[in-house]
Amino acid sequence: MNDQTSAASAEKRASSDGLLSVRGLEVHFPIRSGIIIERQVGAVKAVDGVDLDIPRGATVGLVGESGCGKSTLGRAILRLVEPTAGTVTFDGTDLGALAGEELRRMRRQLQMVFQDPMASLDPRQNVQSVISEPLRAHGVGGDHRARVRELLDLVGLPASAANRYPHEFSGGQRQRIGIARAIALEPQLIVADEPVSALDVSIQAQVVNLLEELQDRLGLTYLVIAHDLAVVRHIADIVAVMYLGGLVEQAPSDDLYATPLHPYTKALMSAVPIPDPAVEDARQRILLQGDLPSPADPPPGCRFHTRCPFRQPTRCADERPALRTVAGHPATHRVACHWAEDIEAGRIQPAAEAVIEPDPAPDPAT
Amino acid sequence: MSLSEVEATTESEQVEQAAGNLRKEAWKRLRRDPVALVGFALIAFFVLVAIFAPLIAPYAPDAQPGRGMITPTNIPGPSADHWFGLDASGRDEFSRVVYGARQSLLVGVVATLIGMAGGLLLGTLAGAFGGKVDAVVMRIVDVMLSIPGLLMAIAIAALLGASLWSVMIAIAIINVPVFARLLRGQMLAQRGSDYVLAAVSIGVRRRPIVLGHILPNSISPVIVQATLTLATAIIEAAGLSFLGLGSADPRVPEWGRMLADTQRYLASAPHLAFFPGIAIVVAALGFTMLGERLREAIDPKYRR
């Protein structure tokens, strides 16, 4: 399963068993102005040049703060949003070249799980109709009632759920319905856009475990979009960190969490509390200043340089870094930072105001 | 399913807030709303009167039981024999008002249904396709809306010739843009929703998405609007008949026409204007009361 059709822009190595390969993907939303004659006055660069490989059977986690374009990337991969440029190659097929009926047929292989399980279910459809809809849409024969019962059982819902309506269920149960719908056609890839962030914390683990269980049983490949690093760490094999429309770091999950190389990843990691007060008090934390810049007018050079505590006077502001490997780290760990080596070696220190130093004498009373 | 029970208890609040409960809740509020109930009772009253008109009315609408009692200066008012008095031709006014309910309700319902059908067609076209289709359809709708409704209805009815059908069609046409615009707005809002995106991602074809998902979820405000339109349709039908654009058959009583016929006798027989006028007002009021409250019950903004 090679990238037979990979585009010329694909200079990156192609995974030998890649299921999905994204090259130079861009999604720009035009900003229009004018009353009678509309003209384009700019573009929101929601996704701006992303390369991503998803190996068959793996779970890739995509993290980033809200507004960084991760949901748009997920939707562009599924062609729910039209990409402006770039290619998405799924199992040797260029999805961008498909149209109409061909694309509709291909959707069988690519499914989506949504963030808000209530909004993603038609309130007027009962569960039987929701879950059998993909079967009907693709003309799958057989006993749909039996198949729906089977799918409900697979996601841990009783068969009696089939005759009920979405509003009669709890959030976690609704998400199970959404998952049952997504696996009904036995797809190869599921894009899960914040699959648990709308759920109670007590329910999140159940749904994450269900996703993992289904992956084992059905051989699914996942792209899990999330802002919760803990969830991603739990479920993902490979993690890609996104910032303002581009990937800044990509690595196997363990590597990334053990040795984050990009300053942004470091900042994200230090925002996650460590459930050990001694370690939590003793560690150095990096705080990000300011807000995410507007994707309509992204900063030149490194997108992150406006907020980067390790910013250097040269290169950062005028040269956009590409994803690259760093000596001493596996080839699968790639980072888009000009100064990754120097930061790792400690030759570049973060700006003092961005750092919360460990409390030298923690007051036991507080 | 112990698991689902646990989830159900931890998230029972969430279930209560669910959007799917909107309809059930709206219905519950409607049943407790005195204004809606009065409106419903008025509508039911007129519908029953229309259906059972031959049983209620003591005389046929074209019978002239009081022919001998009429002089140009003396048209008898209400009495024990003729509750609403007699009209200028000696016909029983009560019987004519009762039979008139048939015409008025028929015009109101048919005109509203045709108008709604036209509006659904245009609104669905605009809302489902968007882009150029939407722009063209909506400009047509804007043009229609820019012409005063009654004026346009008069023009259409005059063009079609005086008949019951031309009144119905005229009223239907002036209501098409109202329904079209309403539905289009609703459908555009639904089009961006997650469940529509979900249907696309599953690979559902466009037609079932539009007809099976978007349309059913956009229709509620249209139904509400139809209830309100019924009220105005009854008034507009009376208006057109008053202007002589309705059915030319004088034997068939129609409230608006009855009002028109009474003009010359207004000073000597005010009861001839009073009773059909009251009937128009009360029938329209019934539909308005129910429609307004229906709108408020469905619209979360009005929640108290």
Automatic annotation (TrEMBL), chain A:
Query: Which CDD domains does this one have?
Result: ABC_NikE_OppD_transporters (cd03257)
- Which residue intervals define the domain ABC transporter in the entry? 31-269
One annotated GO molecular function: ATP hydrolysis activity
Is Magnesium a UniProt keyword of this protein?
no
Q: Which domain of life is it from?
A: Bacteria
Mind telling me which InterPro entries this protein's record contains? AAA+_ATPase, ABC_transp_ATP-bind, ABC_transporter-like_ATP-bd, ABC_transporter-like_CS, Oligopep_ABC_C, P-loop_NTPase
Q: By its UniProt entry, which PROSITE patterns does this protein fall under?
A: ABC_TRANSPORTER_1, ABC_TRANSPORTER_2
The biological processes this protein is annotated with in GO are: peptide transport; transmembrane transport
| One Pfam family of this chain | ABC_tran
Q: Which UniProt keywords apply?
A: ATP-binding, Nucleotide-binding, Transport
Please state which protein family the record places this protein in. Belongs to the ABC transporter superfamily.
- What is this protein called in UniProt? ATP-binding cassette domain-containing protein
UniProtKB/TrEMBL annotation, chain B:
Tell me a GO biological process for this protein: transmembrane transport
GO cellular component annotations, sorted alphabetically? plasma membrane
Where does the ABC transmembrane type-1 domain lie? 101-291
Q: How does it sit in the membrane?
A: Multi-pass membrane protein
Q: Which InterPro entries match?
A: BP-dependent_transpt_permease (IPR050366), MetI-like (IPR000515), MetI-like_sf (IPR035906), OppC_N (IPR025966)
Q: Sorted alphabetically, which Pfam families does this protein's record hold?
A: BPD_transp_1 (PF00528), OppC_N (PF12911)
Where in or outside the cell?
Cell membrane
Q: Which Gene3D superfamilies does the UniProt entry name for this protein?
A: MetI-like
Name the domain of life: Bacteria
Q: Where are the transmembrane segments?
A: 35-57, 105-129, 136-158, 164-183, 222-245, 265-287
Q: Answer yes or no on keyword Cytoplasm.
A: no
Keywords attached to this Swiss-Prot or TrEMBL record, sorted alphabetically, are: Cell membrane, Membrane, Transmembrane, Transmembrane helix, Transport
Family note = Belongs to the binding-protein-dependent transport system permease family.
For this entry, the protein name equals: ABC transporter permease
**Species whose genome carries this gene:** Jiangella aurantiaca
